[in-house]
Amino acid sequence: MARDEKIIAVIPARLNSKRLSNKLLLKIENITILEHVIIRLILSDSFSKIIVASPNNKIKKLIEKYKNVDFYKSKLKHFSGTSRAIEAVKKLKFSKLVIIFGDEPLVRPDEIRFFVNQIYKDKKNDIWNATISIKNKKELIDKSIVKCLLNSYQNIYNLKRHINSNLNKNSKSIIHKSVGLIAFKSEIAKNLNLKKNIENIEQLNFIRDNKYLLKSVKLKHDFFSVNTLKDYKRAKSKFKSSRTQKNIRLAFNLKN
């Protein structure tokens, strides 16, 4: 990575997930889900610093083998992964913060690199959220998927879990799905007041007042978070069937 500004990555990592306990420590191809995310950040070669923010000593011990990854012991309780990540960087100097959630083992290093390149070049917007096209009506009505409503400038003006399936036909809004890759300008990250909101969607608490421009960065390749046992089994199957996922693991082994 050769850039004139510091772009850092933080993985918020907690273990007390309600839907799938200790999911970040579950293994796929003999590597924990969290480590798959770390490996992809390293292979993207896009960051001046990579930090795992967690209150858990198990996480600290797990990542000790990764010499270029720092551990930040966060407060035990946080409203969201975003607030946990921001706690970790309050005293650091950086230009942009990229947050990638620890349950995204299928994100591709080239997509991370593309995302970072887009935010590096963008001098206008304040916050960026990676998005992917909605594939079908089933995804549109799936409440586990956060949908982004975009205007004609590709700025996100709302996020919803529940959406009217006819909205795509009757509205000028563009609808994508949000994925666990988000970035902030330094001054925005350090001054955000992250409070719980009634819809309990990660991003809504800082775009509701329209103070910030939230830009969609559309990715080409679909991936999903591991939130449930069904997701975990699906991810394991994906690793077995996908040549791309196998090559990512191989690339890391060769590099190290």
Q: What is the gist of this entry?
A:
By secondary structure, the protein is of the alpha/beta class.
Oligomeric assembly = single chain
Q: What spatial form do the alpha-carbon principal axes imply?
A: globular
Terminus-to-terminus distance: 17 Å
- Give the helix proportion (percent range): 25-40%
Order of helices and strands: EEEHEHEHEHEHEEHEHHEHH
Tally of DSSP β-strands: 11
Please characterize this protein's 3D structure.
By secondary structure, the chain is an alpha/beta fold. It has one domain: Spore Coat Polysaccharide Biosynthesis Protein SpsA, Chain A, CATH 3.90.550.10. The chain contains ten helices and eleven strands. Strands 1, 4, 5, 6, 7, 8, 9, 10 and 11 form a nine-stranded mixed β-sheet that branches. A hairpin with a 2-residue loop joins strand 2 and strand 3. The longest helix has 13 residues, at 109-121. It is globular.
Primary descriptors:
256 residues; alpha/beta; nine-stranded mixed beta sheet; 10 helices; 11 strands; 23% strand
Question: Helices, strands, pairings?
Answer:
Layout: E1 7-12, E2 27-28, E3 31-32, H1 33-44, E4 49-54, H2 57-62, E5 69-73, H3 81-89, E6 96-100, H4 109-121, E7 127-133, H5 137-141, E8 147-150, E9 156-160, H6 167-170, E10 174-185, H7 186-191, H8 204-207, E11 214-218, H9 229-241, H10 243-255
Parallel strand pairs: 1-4, 1-6, 4-5, 7-11
Antiparallel strand pairs: 2-3, 6-10, 7-10, 8-9, 8-10
Helix pairs in contact: 1-4, 1-10
